[in-house]
Amino acid sequence: SPQGCSGRGVSRQLCPRGADGTAIFAMSDQKDVALELHVTNVPSDPAEPQRDGDDAHEALLTATFPPELPYSALRPYDGRPVVCLANQNGSQVECELGNPMKRGAQVRFFLILSTLGITIQTTDLAVELALSTISEQPGLEPVVARARVIIELPLSVTGVAVPPRLFFGGVVRGESAVRRESQVGSAVSFEVTVSNRGQSLKTLGSAFLTLLWPHEISNGKWLLYPLQLELTVPPGQREPCSPAANPLRLALVPLRARGRGGR
Fold first, then answer.
1. What gap in Å lies between CA 227 and CA 161, rounded to an integer?
2. Which of 17, 25, 29, 44 has the highest Cβ tally under 10 A?
3. 3-state secondary structure 99-121
């Protein structure tokens, strides 16, 4: 009978498993995963080894893969050669296990599967494993290796303030008296960079960044007033949002954010 175990990459690092025993793919930037297969031809009842478990002639394993996880390559487990032939789109592969596969024999190997078809909508994967032989083998049912998928984007965010220190002072104006950018106090620019160190999403996905700053003091007066926000995205990508700034509609000069003192 075939035994499937899902592993991440080709380093034989096993996937974690959920409470129901289902393997979990925590996808980030790996391009492939390994499906470990262990096929045995042993007696069904060790207490009566002579009852069955004969040589299996033309023993063959057929693995069928979902479109999101096509076949990519074959890796031996312990150096023993295994011959596998895949169809054109990698949706199915047939592996020769021996002719005959001797009584008591064990065959172990890895099928390397490409993750490039996995999208943000992929939630689970199923690979069907079916054994066949021209020898008599009653009750030889397919086995399905299942896994859940979690997409992990290795996002990072960095920020810098220019200047790094601010000094508050000067004439305090009420909000109704402020008309121009020059009246809101010393300027400070905050540059925030969000980057994705992993593979890009091929389908629509959403990532959110929340920025918090001290915009007012305890009595409700402005502290850091947002004058202008500028978004820069890679070529070919649309701007992810239209940030709201300058709620008082002050007359602006070049791009910057200012702070003002107040009581």
1. 15
2. 25
3. CCECCCCEEEEEEEEECCCCCCC
* Of the candidates 144, 61, 129, 137, the residue with the CA atom closest to the CA atom of residue 103: 137
pLDDT, one tens digit for every residue, the chain (263 residues): 333 333 433 344 566 777 777 777 677 667 888 899 999 888 777 677 676 668 889 999 999 999 999 999 999 887 778 899 999 999 999 999 989 999 888 999 999 999 888 887 888 999 999 999 998 877 788 999 888 888 777 788 999 988 888 777 667 777 888 888 888 877 888 899 988 776 665 555 667 788 888 888 888 888 888 888 888 777 766 666 666 788 888 888 754 444 444 43
Tokens linked to 87:
């169809």
Tell me the CB-side half-sphere exposure of residue 101, using CA atoms within 13 A: 27
Range(s) for CATH 2.60.40.1510 in the chain? 23-151
Q: Which CATH superfamily includes the segment(s) 23-151? A: ntegrin, alpha v. Chain A, domain 3 (2.60.40.1510)
Q: Which two tokens stand for residue 214?
A: 């001290």
Burial class (CB in 10 A: 0-12, 13-18, 19+), 109: buried
Nearest to 87 by CA among 116, 67, 58, 57: 67
